[in-house]
Amino acid sequence: MLGLDQSDLTLRIGTIAAISIYSAVFLLLLGILLLRYIRNKKDRRRLAVTEIWRPLLAECVVEVPATLPPLTTRDHLVLLYLWNHCYESIRGDARANLIELARRTGSDQFAKELLHARLLRRRLLAIVTLGHLQERSIWNELAGMLQADNAFLSLVAAKALLHIDAQGAVPLIIPVISQRKDWSPLKVVAIFEPAGADIAAEAIAEAACLASPEIGSRLIRHLAATQSQHALPPLRALLQNGSPSDDLLAACLFLFGECSDPRDVATIRKHLSHPTWYVRLQAASALGKVGVEEDEARFIALLDDEHWWVRYRAAEALANLPWMTAERLTQVHNALTTVESQEHLLPFMAHSNAKTHPTARVA
């Protein structure tokens, strides 16, 4: 009897377990189907709103449509995504028409409500929209968001401030750039797009001067992307009046080479004998872009540098000088007294000879 009872108990437990598993699988499948239904319904609704509003937004290139359809809350969210995409895709007076359309649909007030939403993506959407609308009433809120724990939220707020008032936003953003290690230098360059390359270059250069050497050197290296000479005066003042770290100094020399301003030649030459090897390396690379014929002797002297990379960059700069010929490069090579200095010129000599005497093609 005891054996039968145990067998019956085992069978019952197995049956209950099987029923529980099948029930869980059924509920899981039901949940998946429900989620797919909801997603498909949202996609259909989003597509319907897009088909209605995309032609109306396109009309704003010429003029704002006279009549506009009503909007539900969900439709309004879709419209904001479409509106921002359209705003960023056009330039000139057409943007004013888009701003008028947004105000007529109440998008400015709707975005202000979204600014305090629980979902981060909705808050980001609100910040981007209000920045494009140049809504000054939220200036203080955006300024407070510069210190937000979420780096992406703070970057979006900074860009919105620059859209609203670039001149007023720069003094607020510069100290923040110098403090935040979680702001990528590439993102920093990107957020200054509304302010223009010159304002961006000057602001980032000033922030780099205030930042730690680690952050400052990274910012300076990305200033080359702005292609603006406005970054140079703050950095020149930093080198002249202060005692920057080796990292900052190397980054400044890199930028001087990229900008190729003749006024920086004397500063570059002065650091060819710097005790830190990577500073000498950047000085050699920069001088190769701005140097004159009298600098040839300086490059030859660097071919005897104790560090391999400095010798290599010196050889590269020497070979790429505008007036350098294959014959002159061979003369320099033959006049060198050490094997280490000669070996760096060999690949550049081969490349120079190949350009001067190209191999005839076999028919």
Brief summary of the model shown:
The chain has helices at residues 2-59, 73-89, 94-104, 107-114, 120-132, 139-145, 151-164, 166-179, 185-191, 197-210, 213-222, 232-241, 246-259, 265-270, 277-290, 296-302, 308-319, 326-335, 339-356.
Q: Mean pLDDT score, rounded?
A: 85
- Order of helical and strand elements: HHHHHHHHHHHHHHHHHHH
Shape: extended
Helix content: over 70%
Low-confidence stretches are 359-363
This entry's quaternary arrangement is single chain
Instruction: Give me the number of helical elements.
Output: 19
> Which structural class best describes the helix and strand composition?
mainly alpha
Largest sheet: none
Task: Describe the protein.
The protein is mainly α and 363 residues long. The protein has a domain at 45-133. It has 19 helices and no strands. It has helices spanning 2-59, 73-89, 94-104, 107-114, 120-132, 139-145, 151-164, 166-179, 185-191, 197-210, 213-222, 232-241, 246-259, 265-270, 277-290, 296-302, 308-319, 326-335, 339-356. Helix 1 crosses helix 2 (73-89), helix 12 (232-241) runs antiparallel to helix 13 (246-259) and helix 13 (246-259) runs parallel beside helix 15 (277-290). It is extended. The chain starts with a helix and ends in a 7-residue tail after the last helix. Mean pLDDT is 85; it is low at 359-363.
For the structure shown, list the relevant keywords.
363 residues; 73% helix; 19 helices; mainly alpha; disordered C terminus
Could you give the topology of this structure?
Elements: H1 2-59, H2 73-89, H3 94-104, H4 107-114, H5 120-132, H6 139-145, H7 151-164, H8 166-179, H9 185-191, H10 197-210, H11 213-222, H12 232-241, H13 246-259, H14 265-270, H15 277-290, H16 296-302, H17 308-319, H18 326-335, H19 339-356
Helix pairs in contact: 1-2, 2-5, 4-5, 5-7, 6-7, 7-8, 8-10, 9-11, 10-11, 10-12, 11-13, 12-13, 13-15, 15-17, 16-17, 17-19, 18-19
